[in-house]
Specification:
Residues 9-99 form the Arginyl tRNA synthetase N-terminal domain. It comes from Candidatus Monoglobus merdigallinarum. Residues 444-564 form the DALR anticodon binding domain. By secondary structure, this protein is α/β, with parallel strands linked by helices. It is built from 20 helices and 15 strands. The strands form four sheets. A five-stranded parallel sheet has the order 7-6-5-11-12, sandwiched between helices. The longest helix is centred in the middle third of the chain and has 26 residues, at 233-258. It is globular, with a radius of gyration of 30 Å.
Length: 564
Amino acid sequence: MSITDNIKHDITDRIGAAIAAAQADGSLPGQDVQNLAARLEVPKNKEHGDFACNIAMVLAKQLKTAPRKIAEEIAAHIDKSGIIEKVEVAGAGFINFYLDPSWLYETMRAIEEQGSDYGKITLGSGKRVMVEFVSANPTGPMHMGNARGGALGDCLASVLEYAGYDVTREFYINDAGNQIEKFGNSLNARYIQQLMGEDAIEFPEDGYKGSDITCRAKEFIELYGDKYLSAGEEERKQALIDYALEKNIAALKTDLEKYRIHYDVWFRESELHKNGEVKAAIDRLTEHGYTYEENGALWLDCEKMGLEKNEVLVRQNGIPTYFAADIAYHINKLETRGFDWAVNVWGADHHGHVARMKSAVAAVGIDPSRLDVVLMQLVRLMQDGEVVRMSKRTGKAITLSDLIDEVSIDAARFFFNMRGAGSHLDFDLGLAKEQSNNNPVFYVQYAHARICGILRLLAEDGVEVKSYAEVKPELLTHETELELLKKLCELPEEIKASAESLEPAKMTRYSTELATAFHVFYNACRVNVEDAALRDARMKLIDCTRRVLAIVLGMLKITAPERM
């Protein structure tokens, strides 16, 4: 339990005791209080205390008493011993608690004792969660949506790990179905055109027209020449697919690892077909009465599930749809492999797919609450106020590889997590490369580097950071010192909020706020002062800040430089 949790529990217990005392002496009506929910929050205005409580509003209806009156009686009966300095009633009945700063000092002890584990909580209780993200179509290079999804999904997985979950990162390779058929047709056409000329075969109208297809066809020719011209079309297409698909998957892995994303599992859709899991999923839906046949195809009766549009599971040609395979994949996640929870990061264009998938999971008897989907909005690359759509190098759409050649990986990962997944994001290329405090990742990294610099100079003078037991934290009384301590104390709460909301953007926001609290402190308070005791306390404070900045940046897989 975090320091903040301990304080909240203490105050909540005192509130309960105060209500009982007020009822005992007749100050408040004596009937039993149901559903006591003393919610404590940190006020936005620091003049309103360290914590504020709305319990008087919650009890007003039960006790048939005005909230303000209830708040005043609770405040009058509160035990103010120990850390509580004063209690005030504000507005219609909020109770504001002002605490002795001694509770904040324990934050430094916790950071020292827990080290890199500071901030970790037990929210997940070791439950197994699979975070599936990116899962880009292996028929071509990754685009900007994949770049955002990669940073978002990987950082979300880290947050869940810090929140106490057993996390598996997974990439789902769509190596079966229509897109692979289209991939094969495209490769086949380019192969023949390279050997026999453009007019030898018409390129498929719905084919993949990217230069990467031509590149793969040329590579294939370098290996096999015209060997496959005389082969049957299906044999030729399969040979091209087998070659190009593995090359593309290897490229995906290389780009993602360069982006600091390391997957625990690369799961192939084709395995679901080979193992009979797609057929088994369709059979289960049929057994439960959720399928019907029409015009030679097998349909999922989504209307029976309360949804508007029915979906094809098996086409007229007998080939299962991508949706059918996706249902089998989620059964595999939640049942076959037994994950307690599955979290998918999908593009916003999959919005309508979420309800269908959760309903399909429920239709085969799996609790749909075990599946959550984070929908990610579009990203626009901006340069000098203009939208950038094309790669300078290729003249084609900008890929993940283009982006991380253009800006640092640190900047890319930070910028993609600056806004919630549900918000559109404008990625400012110029700002991402700027070496100034206007660049948010530079601003946070500079706070870490500045602290390292201060401590390095003091170490050169023979002054080292002391242990918590050796310093006098009570000397830290300046407003900026206390605000910095409060921000350090908030990390476990921020991780909890981020995990519960599935929003890693909360962590970039927290890192920026912590950097700001440090910079404000630095501008107001010298560390290397003549008073050795105060100097040692401040050194301990900034060293704790350094550690927490490193923890959060590490969670985001962003470097924490010691010099800048």
